[in-house]
């Protein structure tokens, strides 16, 4: 049982559990009285919070959507920042980032279902590769304004983060870009239904 008290193992467990907290689901239930797992795309992310709550309370929908993005981003950010203060290695920080994403996408509280990892990915990337992430965020916001398709904007923003990291940071500082690629893969994988709808021209816009 000693491994449970290992510094890294404890942070990995906390990262996954924190990532698993379904803030979008909780906010919509508490403040709007709706279960977003039963409506819309049934995702626990900010876009579905906006779509579902907007049907009954448009002004509240925007607030809850923004709150969902912020809280989902902070799930990974806070754990990483605490680990940084305790002098965790860069490799450990990236492992925490991956586990926070996995927690959000495959939540222990939702039977290993969950969201698509965009906001949580934004949060962990912002701490670990800030400049590329800011570039990706600008691409994300610009595309969202122009295209008004949440999934496509998110994927373009994510792609911009990875490309910018490779060019500006020359990759990661741990001798491997694998954690960044893994996070990107998880987010892309969770977006496969959206990608298929985009190809068919059936993906809904966020108005």
TrEMBL record:
Keywords from the UniProt entry: Acyltransferase, Cell membrane, Lipid biosynthesis, Lipid metabolism, Membrane, Phospholipid biosynthesis, Phospholipid metabolism, Transferase, Transmembrane, Transmembrane helix
Pathway: Lipid metabolism; phospholipid metabolism
SMART domains reported in the protein's UniProt record: G3P_acyltransf
Enzyme Commission numbers on file: 2.3.1.275
Record's catalysed reaction(s): an acyl phosphate + sn-glycerol 3-phosphate = a 1-acyl-sn-glycero-3-phosphate + phosphate
TM stretches of this protein: 9-32, 64-86, 93-112, 118-142, 149-168, 180-199
GO molecular function ontology, one term from the record: acyl-phosphate glycerol-3-phosphate acyltransferase activity
GO cellular component term of the entry, any: plasma membrane
InterPro entries xrefs: G3P_acylTferase_PlsY
Compartments (UniProt record): Cell membrane
Top-level taxon of the source organism: Bacteria
GO biological process: phospholipid biosynthetic process
Summary of subunit composition and partner proteins: Probably interacts with PlsX.
Protein family (similarity comment): Belongs to the PlsY family.
HAMAP family: PlsY (MF_01043)
Function of the protein: Catalyzes the transfer of an acyl group from acyl-phosphate (acyl-PO(4)) to glycerol-3-phosphate (G3P) to form lysophosphatidic acid (LPA). This enzyme utilizes acyl-phosphate as fatty acyl donor, but not acyl-CoA or acyl-ACP.
Name recorded for this polypeptide: Glycerol-3-phosphate acyltransferase
Species the sequence originates in: Halarcobacter bivalviorum
Name of the coding gene: plsY
